[in-house]
């Protein structure tokens, strides 16, 4: 069965390393992030997983991760769609702020609510629910069809856009999804049934 979907969160970004809210800002990868992406490619190569299509966001850190993964696979020519539907959650007024400084300004509980609730958005930004509302239609219309045709598809995106996909794939609830942690540069391999449900899931830790 070749109905394979692989999700990879981008490697560590420059702003991850500085503990900043990133959202739709566009920092690049750190050297560690680049190595995380290459390692993801090597892990996939060990399993002889090659792709016929790839998707990524409109943001540099995800695009660079995808390029490094495919480079390790010797597949730099894979047809790729870049779309902001797969962008990280937009953090609005928090974007660029240090998370500790944000806690000092608004309080621990308010920042926790913005970061971990399902439907509370930071000022000028998106909630996780808002992110889900743009990611899931894109998944259903663009990503899922080639997978169900038997293709192997790679998605390089972000913590919150991948959480949105996990809501569908892992049948998670609004209550459980905010607690899901997705590590940088770690491939998650899904094998799908013909009805789009998950036959198996493997995390290449």
TrEMBL record:
Q: Which Pfam families does the UniProt entry name for this protein?
A: His_Phos_1 (PF00300)
PROSITE patterns per UniProt: PG_MUTASE (PS00175)
Q: What is its EC number?
A: 5.4.2.11
Binding site residues for substrate: 9-16, 22-23, 61, 88-91, 99, 115-116, 159-160
Q: Which biological process annotations from GO are given for this protein? A: gluconeogenesis; glycolytic process
Q: Which SUPFAM superfamilies match?
A: Phosphoglycerate mutase-like (SSF53254)
Print the keywords alphabetically.
Gluconeogenesis, Glycolysis, Isomerase
Q: Does the keyword Isomerase apply?
A: yes
The feature of type site (Transition state stabilizer) is located at: 158
Question: Its Gene Ontology molecular function terms?
Answer: phosphoglycerate mutase activity
Tell me the route in metabolism or biology where this protein functions: Carbohydrate degradation; glycolysis; pyruvate from D-glyceraldehyde 3-phosphate: step 3/5
Residues of the active site: 10 (tele-phosphohistidine intermediate), 88 (proton donor/acceptor)
Q: Which family does the entry's similarity section mention?
A: Belongs to the phosphoglycerate mutase family. BPG-dependent PGAM subfamily.
Family annotation (NCBIfam families): pgm_1 (TIGR01258), PRK01295.1 (NF002339)
The record describes the protein's role as:
Catalyzes the interconversion of 2-phosphoglycerate and 3-phosphoglycerate.
Task: Please give the name of this protein.
Answer: 2,3-bisphosphoglycerate-dependent phosphoglycerate mutase
- Protein's gene: gpmA
């Amino acid at each position: 069965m070749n109905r394979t979907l692989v999700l990879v969160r981008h490697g560590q970004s420059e702003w991850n390393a500085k503990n900043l809210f990133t959202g739709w800002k566009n920092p690049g990868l750190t050297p560690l992030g680049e190595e995380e992406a290459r390692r993801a490619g090597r892990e996939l190569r060990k399993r002889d997983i090659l792709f016929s299509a790839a998707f990524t966001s409109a943001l540099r850190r995800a695009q660079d991760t995808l390029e490094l993964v495919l480079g390790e696979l010797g597949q730099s020519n894979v047809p790729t769609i870049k779309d902001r539907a797969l962008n990280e959650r937009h953090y609005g007024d928090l974007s660029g702020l240090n998370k500790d400084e944000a806690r000092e300004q608004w309080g621990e509980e308010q920042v926790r609510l913005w970061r971990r609730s399902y439907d509370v958005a930071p000022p000028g930004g998106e909630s996780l629910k808002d992110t889900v509302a743009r990611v899931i239609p894109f998944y259903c219309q663009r990503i899922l069809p080639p997978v169900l045709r038997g293709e192997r598809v790679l998605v390089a995106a972000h913590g919150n856009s991948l959480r949105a996909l996990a809501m569908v794939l892992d049948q998670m609830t609004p209550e459980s999804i905010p607690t899901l942690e997705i590590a940088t540069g770690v491939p998650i391999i899904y094998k799908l049934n013909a009805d789009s449900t998950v036959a198996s899931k493997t995390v290449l830790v």
